[in-house]
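[Meeting: bench + compute handoff]

Bench side (C.D.) handed over the final construct sequence. Compute side (W.E.) agreed to return the predicted structure before the next meeting so the bench team could plan truncations. Sequence as handed over:
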Amino acid sequence: MHDSFDSSAALKSLLARIGHQVAEVVDYQQLLEQEIDRLSDALDQAIDWEKAKQAGLK
């Protein structure tokens, strides 16, 4: 059931059926990808990959 809300159109349709107006449609897949990229960038900055390799992390 939770996958039903991954589609912006499906979520907007569901909300309209129960009387809610949607001011902005969010592309959740795009938002997810942006947040994964942001997390990846933060990890790259926080981790010393050379030390991680020396410790056996691949």
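W.E. noted at the follow-up: The helical segments are 8-17, 28-46, 49-54. C.D. will use this when planning the next construct.
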